[in-house]
């Protein structure tokens, strides 16, 4: 059952990448006229990721430990560095997996500037992992700005919780 | 019966709302005596009375409904002061000029008198709407509609108010515009919606639901397209909606695709992070990055353009905290126009003279308007809550913004002069990130 699902997925991914090759621009995929909608591609990506994380178990949970930041800062604290060093060990242990770093901000600034700031935070962690020898091709970043607060409340306690990087193991 | 057939054949505006008569002296004539300069520095108010509608055919219910719709529309126009008819001794014997004694209105300093006259006809009946200039007893706006239906009442109210605003100010764009904005959908997703500023025509544009967050919508200057950022699980994408159907989604060579914005000529500018630096790029063929419009250090986001396409305002944090800069699209360095603090969300007025933006005061944002000519900053929103994402109306008079002043995030409208904000109906749930565009012509 599980196996056939994986097969279907693998086939889908193969088809998608072929469709991507057929396209002159690097845009490969969404909006390239390949006939597969962005929604279908996103669903396939998420499904494949879920399956991978299930297989990884505890390692995936450990990789997903968050990192927090000080106000208006993308500097990594000593605690954050320790956390990232542990992630680098796991990534070395599982050379087949990749890591997505999600940058997040607190609620005080405005949305668009925070989307750019969140990217800076995500890149700070990705850069540190890269310095520890993890290949850049295994690391990617996405910023959610202030759009996905862990704690929607106001006050420093909530804001501190929201200034963070989250991490997702992926294929 | 004939009317219904006509409706099917000729469509909505052409036949069902057939203008019976043009009661009117020309608008140019009207403007010569009674006119509001909405672009000017100050804000004088005109007093307006809506007389009780005349409903000879007994159409009290639709008459009251139309009256209520017009009343709500006029409340969006801060240069009008609505005076209850009971404040003026009743001298309106009918809806036409010979049936009205204008003297008491003149004495009560009423500038504009609006009458409605219903007569029997198909569907709900026929209605004539008139706006008189009390001083000259001239008709400013006169409209007649035959065989109206209940569903047409909002459009009749909007059309009448648009012409009244046109007659008084020379601009009626408010009723001829639309606002794109963001509403939460299922899960953590958000989607783009559109609505007319009166709250009519609420329409969902994207349906990503829990799969993605569609944010930062921006109208093209012709009101036919919307660009937006689509935040997916591993990157941002550029979404382009072209007036119907599903939006196209484009992958760019940057995982960060922030604050896309149309130029007047239909090109798109967007902030991308390339080689570790967030700059604003002009997109070329296939929405792929072309020429950068900014340079130097720091984060650059939130481009906004005037109607000539020559002036761009944007945000840069090259000196530390984010501030507003202005540059020429043709090239040249940016000029910093805000001096201190945290200033973001610029929106350039269509004439390129003003920039509306938000300034962080404490832990909340407030909307300010900066005069680029004089450097003068004016705070236009105040009170509780946080006010974000100001967006100029196409006529440059109104400013839409999102605010938490009434609890959850909702969209409000003020003016460049800081008129009392009026909430735009957007349905249940929160609404944010307004972008104001015209209705396509």
Automatic annotation (TrEMBL), chain A:
Boundaries of every OmpA-like domain copy: 56-171
Membrane topology label: Lipid-anchor
One Pfam short name: OmpA
Listed GO CC annotations: cell outer membrane
Subcellular location, record wording: Cell outer membrane
GO annotation terms (biological process): cell division
Leader sequence residues: 1-26
Keywords: Cell cycle, Cell division, Cell outer membrane, Lipoprotein, Membrane, Palmitate, Signal
Organism superkingdom: Bacteria
SUPFAM superfamilies, sorted: OmpA-like
Chief location of this protein within or outside the cell: membrane
Cross-referenced PANTHER family: LIPOPROTEIN YIAD-RELATED (PTHR30329:SF21), STATOR ELEMENT OF FLAGELLAR MOTOR COMPLEX (PTHR30329)
Name under which the protein is recorded: Peptidoglycan-associated lipoprotein
Organism: Solidesulfovibrio aerotolerans
Gene from which this protein is expressed: pal
UniProtKB/TrEMBL annotation, chain B:
Top-level taxon of the source organism: Bacteria
GO cellular component assignments: periplasmic space
Residue span(s) of domain TolB N-terminal: 35-139
GO-annotated biological processes: protein transport
Signal peptide: 1-30
InterPro entries, A to Z: 6-blade_b-propeller_TolB-like, TolB_N, WD40
Entry keyword set: Signal
Family recorded in the similarity comment: Belongs to the TolB family.
PANTHER family hit by this protein: PROTEIN TOLB, PROTEIN TOLB HOMOLOG
Record protein name field: Translocation protein TolB
Species classification: Bacteria, Pseudomonadati, Thermodesulfobacteriota, Desulfovibrionia, Desulfovibrionales
């Amino acid at each position: 059952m599980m196996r056939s699902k994986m097969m279907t997925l693998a086939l889908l991914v193969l088809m998608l990448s072929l469709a991507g090759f057929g396209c002159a621009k690097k845009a490969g995929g969404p909006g390239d006229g390949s006939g597969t909608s962005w929604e279908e591609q996103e669903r396939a990506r998420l499904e494949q990721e879920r399956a991978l994380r299930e297989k990884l178990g505890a390692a995936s949970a450990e990789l997903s430990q968050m990192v927090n930041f000080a106000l208006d800062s993308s500097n990594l604290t000593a605690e954050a560095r320790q956390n990232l060093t542990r992630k680098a060990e796991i990534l070395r242990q599982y050379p087949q997996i990749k890591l997505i770093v999600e940058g997040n901000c607190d609620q005080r600034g405005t949305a668009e500037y925070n989307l750019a700031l969140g990217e800076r935070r995500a890149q700070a962690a990705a850069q540190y992992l890269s310095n520890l020898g993890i290949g850049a091709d295994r690391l990617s970043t996405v910023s959610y700005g202030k759009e996905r607060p862990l704690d929607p409340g106001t006050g420093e306690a909530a804001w501190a919780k929201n200034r963070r990087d989250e991490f997702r193991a992926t294929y | 019966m004939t009317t219904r057939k006509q409706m099917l054949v000729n469509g909505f505006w052409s036949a069902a709302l057939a203008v019976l008569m043009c009661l009117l002296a020309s608008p140019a004539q009207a403007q010569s005596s009674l006119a509001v300069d909405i672009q000017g520095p100050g804000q004088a108010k005109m007093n307006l009375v809506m007389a009780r509608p005349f409903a000879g055919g007994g159409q009290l219910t639709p008459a009251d409904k139309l009256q209520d719709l017009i009343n709500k529309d006029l409340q969006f126009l801060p240069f009008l002061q609505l005076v209850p008819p009971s404040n003026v001794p009743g001298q309106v014997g009918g809806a036409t000029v010979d049936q009205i004694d204008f003297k008491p209105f003149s004495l009560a300093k009423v500038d504009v008198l609006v009458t409605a006259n219903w007569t029997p006809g198909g569907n709900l009946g026929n209605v004539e709407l008139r706006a008189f200039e009390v001083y000259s007893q001239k008709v400013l706006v006169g409209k007649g509609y035959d065989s109206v239906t209940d569903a047409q009442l909002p459009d009749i109210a909007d059309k009448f108010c648009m012409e009244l605003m046109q007659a008084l100010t020379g601009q009626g764009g408010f009723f001829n515009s639309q606002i794109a904005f963001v509403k939460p959908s299922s899960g953590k997703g958000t989607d783009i919606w559109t609505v007319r500023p009166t709250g009519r025509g609420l329409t969902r544009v994207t349906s990503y639901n829990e799969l993605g967050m569609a944010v930062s919508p921006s109208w093209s200057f012709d009101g036919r397209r919307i660009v937006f950022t689509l935040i997916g699980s591993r990157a941002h994408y550029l979404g382009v909606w072209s007036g119907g159907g599903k939006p196209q989604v484009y992958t760019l060579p940057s995982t960060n695709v922030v604050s896309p914005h149309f130029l007047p000529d239909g090109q798109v500018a967007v902030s991308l992070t390339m080689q570790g630096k967030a700059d604003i790029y002009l997109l070329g063929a296939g929405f792929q990055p072309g020429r950068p419009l900014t340079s130097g250090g720091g984060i650059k986001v939130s481009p906004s353009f005037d109607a000539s396409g020559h002036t761009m305002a944007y945000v840069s944090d090259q000196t530390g905290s984010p501030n507003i800069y202005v540059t020429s699209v043709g090239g040249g360095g940016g000029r910093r126009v805000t001096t201190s603090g945290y200033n973001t969300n610029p929106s350039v007025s269509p004439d390129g003279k003003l920039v509306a933006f938000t300034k962080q005061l404490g832990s909340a944002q407030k909307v300010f308007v900066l005069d680029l000519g004089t450097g003068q900053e004016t705070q236009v929103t105040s009170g509780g809550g946080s006010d974000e994402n100001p967006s100029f109306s196409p006529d440059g008079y109104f400013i839409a913004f999102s605010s938490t002043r009434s609890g959850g995030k909702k969209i409000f409208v003020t003016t460049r002069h800081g008129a009392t904000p009026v909430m735009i109906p957007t349905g249940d749930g929160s609404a944010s990130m307004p972008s104001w565009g015209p209705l396509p012509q």
